């Protein structure tokens, strides 16, 4: 038997265990087994893969569904061994199963599908997009990814708490909520969390009010004026403690968010991608950190169009015959898209040419979000070129040029 160029491994990822199929480029299946998601299971996996590698020679390519998900830390261990790692595109795998259905459905059959995808990719270039090789990502961007995702989770939690707290305040004591324009004010949150009994706020002395952190004479006079007409509903006895608890949690989340943002700023000094994106007017540290963390490396994207799709700034052509149309892509990183939408919206307010382009799209009947995505499509080209060349953003006014967005 001729020596194959590589050993191919397909893993059907599960929550507690994974199914593994090992084969050759010829399609021959060498081994099949179940892998427990435990250290001893990982040791068994590498032991069996290496035994086949010693026998047949060549490198090792591993394909798994849900890279960076349930497979962690197996995916990291695979890359640390020097194996090539491929992520199986879930949507395209589903289409593949529809076109080439199996006689039955089981984890082992699904694992074999990965080996079939390897073979299909050898002979059909279009099928290569089903298996996407995972490029090496700088450690600082991996850290940014974890930190910004954590930050986004805490931001969402704070938004839910504030919404619930304001609804409860409106029902229990609407006059109290009226003394502030924003319930997320630190001084107002400190006032709510001053004691366990919300109704006692109406009886606080001015010296006590002034002793609360963040409250000076201006806010103290507003609170004193409210106390004269303060009234509470009958359910304040049991709803009040809930409001106090939510206020204290929001204050705690503010502290944690500041700590996370400080960590992101430190990592940005090490991340080239974050620094380059941060040079674009309007994006700022938060958006730049989020986008850098989700991108990881620009080497993942062969052209600016694929980057634009990933960022949610471009639609796919969906034309047929005389009918012309487009459709929303499903391969969009929703976190990166949210950061891009915020960054692009701020960017157009700071760059006159971008603002004029946005207004042009609005006059054409586009909605705000559609106009922002249209501008974001142009910025995706700029970002792609910046990251490929390692150059900072620079806006140049050139009256003789039709290009209104210039990149450094």
* Strand order in the largest sheet: 3-2-1-4-5-6
Name the quaternary structure: single chain
The structural domain count equals: 3
Low-confidence runs: 404-408
First-to-last CA distance: 55 Å
Query: Could you give the order of the helices and strands?
Result: EEEHEHEHHEHHHHHHHHHEEHHH
Number of helices: 16
Architecture of the largest domain, CATH level 2? Answer: 2-Layer Sandwich
The whole-number mean of residue pLDDT values reads 86
Annotation, overall tally of beta strands = 8
**What class, by secondary structure content?**
alpha/beta
Strand content: 5-15%
Cα shape: globular
In CATH terms, the superfamily of the largest domain is: Ribonuclease H-like superfamily/Ribonuclease H
CATH topology of the largest domain: Nucleotidyltransferase, domain 5
CATH class of the largest domain: Alpha Beta
Question: In percent, how helical is the residue content?
Answer: 40-55%
**Biggest sheet, open or closed, and with what strands and sense?**
6 strands, mixed
Description:
The chain has 408 residues and is an alpha/beta fold. The protein has 3 domains: 6-134, 2-Layer Sandwich (Nucleotidyltransferase, domain 5), CATH 3.30.420; 140-268, Orthogonal Bundle (Helix Hairpins), CATH 1.10.287.4070; 272-389, no CATH class. Helices cover 55% and strands 10% of the residues. The chain contains 16 helices and 8 strands. The protein has helices spanning 39-56, 74-80, 90-99, 107-123, 139-172, 174-177, 186-192, 206-210, 217-227, 236-268, 272-278, 284-295, 304-310, 334-350, 352-363, 368-389; strands at 6-12, 17-23, 29-36, 59-65, 84-88, 131-133, 316-317, 326-327. The strands form 2 sheets. A 6-stranded mixed beta sheet has the order 3-2-1-4-5-6, sandwiched between helices. Strands 7-8 form a two-stranded antiparallel sheet. A hairpin with a 5-residue loop joins strand 2 (17-23) and strand 3 (29-36). Helix 12 packs antiparallel against helix 14 and helix 15 runs antiparallel to helix 16. The longest helix is centred in the middle third of the chain and has 34 residues, at 139-172. It is globular. The two termini are 55 Å apart. The model is unreliable at 404-408 (pLDDT under 50).
